[in-house]
Amino acid sequence: MRYSKTLLTLTLLSCSLSPTTSLANGLLPYCFGSKMCQMGGAGAAIPLDSTSGNVNPALMANVGRDLALDPLVVLQKEHVNSSHTQLTRGTPLPPYTGKLTNKIKAYAAGYSGLNYDINPQWSFGLSTGGGGNNARYKSSIVSPALAAPRKLETLAGLASTILAYKPTCDQAYGVSLIVGYLQMKNNLTKFPSGVVTRGAGKTDWGMGIGARVGGQWDASQFLSFGLAASTPTYFQRLKKYRDVLYHAPQLPPIVTGGFAWHARKDTEVLFDLEGVFWKASPFTAKKPPSGVNWRNVLVFKFGIQHAVNPDVLLRIGYNYGRTPVPSKAVLFNALDEVITLSEHVFSLGFTREITKTMSFDLGGAYLFPKKLKDNGQGPAGLAAKGLTVKASAIMVTLGFNLKY
User: Fold this and answer.
1) Label partner for 274 (CA 20 to 30 A): which of 29, 141, 247, 256?
2) Phi, psi torsion values for 242, nearest 5 degrees
3) Residues contacting residue 293 through CB under 8 Å, at least 6 positions apart
4) pLDDT > 90 in the chain, percent
5) What are phi and psi of 16, to 5 degrees?
């Protein structure tokens, strides 16, 4: 009976595979574009550059002819500790005696944008974002005698084709068609046999589709508002992991609203409130073994930008969003990346104008350490109680912008 329970626990870990872990409490990983990332992800109410269309397509109406390329690197530190659990009790499998560290220390992502003014009222643009999850441990996170589960790799990319309309100088509206690409590789176990999934170590991929609408309004010379909402992004079923993923992957619907207070001619204060509805996705909403039991998340984003002079713009920001992973589901999310766990993010950065048409961005963010501990109230019961996951990270963003 105890051995069967252990096998059940191992198979439940297969549900820690989440093609959406790169979204976490915000978006890829918590923001879109270098400038937005410098301000805690805030920026739904004012146009920053052509990456702004990733959040609010209406902003592209005021970006002008713009080209942006913003790569980023996440330096992560995370570990899993199952030495205090009863996962291997009653079996010949040896338990761990300490923490197990993720061997992947860094991963890259990026954003880009392109916008073209057709005429003073209409513009057409493209905003993209991408990222992923990389977890690779020396051996299974349950016991050093096992080969799985120990590895999870995902890659997600989204491209938003945007049409924006500006009927008057103080209002704009936009709509975008979102096309997504999802790729994954893992060696997790399948339910209910405990055998490694048939797609183990193989790369599988699928395409997805969704939509987003938005609006932006200048209430006065001191205050601007922005609002945007996206549908779920529906992906194709991944055939190689059909025995692990019972549902087709799906990114959640998101609603973002915010304002920008133009406090002075050289200073703006931004605040966004974002709802990420993980409960709308069959995979993330359902309890194990068919899901990961994530909860909906409300994200607070705050930022300030100040022009020191016509050539230099400084920014600072803060982001808070409770992790979607509840304490009873820590075991089933043990291979999720640091972005999924982190709740507090502090960021800063600057833009330096090189010429009248070209600028450079440099920013950084610190994702404060977060530790989650399984409370033993999930499907695996007391066998999982005490399992901990701890993570923190530093994110570095670059940006290159060209007005043409």
Assistant:
1) 247
2) -60, -30
3) 284, 285, 286, 287, 326, 328, 329, 332, 378
4) 54
5) -75, -10
What structural domains and CATH numbers belong to the chain?
2-403 (2.40.160.60)
Residue linked to tokens 């087709």: 248
Residue 357 pLDDT exceeds 70:
yes
| Residue 181 to residue 203: CA distance in whole angstroms | 13
Question: pLDDT of 35-60, one tens digit each?
Answer: 999 999 999 999 999 999 999 999 99
Rg of the chain's alpha carbons, rounded to an integer?
A: 22
Confidence of residue 317 (pLDDT cuts 50, 70, 90): very high
Report field, pTM of the whole predicted structure over 0.85: yes
Question: Is the distance from CB of 299 to CB of 274 less than 8 angstroms?
Answer: yes
* β-strand pairing of 297-309 with 223-230: unpaired
How many helical (H) and strand (E) elements, i.e. helices and strands, does the chain have?
A: 4, 17
Buried residues in 339-363 as b, exposed as e (16+ CB within 10 A): bbbbbebebbbbbeeeeeeebebeb
Question: What is the C-alpha to C-alpha distance for residues 165 and 222, in angstroms, rounded to an integer?
Answer: 22
Cβ atoms of residues 179 and 158 within 8 Å:
yes
Residue 30 to residue 23: CA distance in whole angstroms: 7
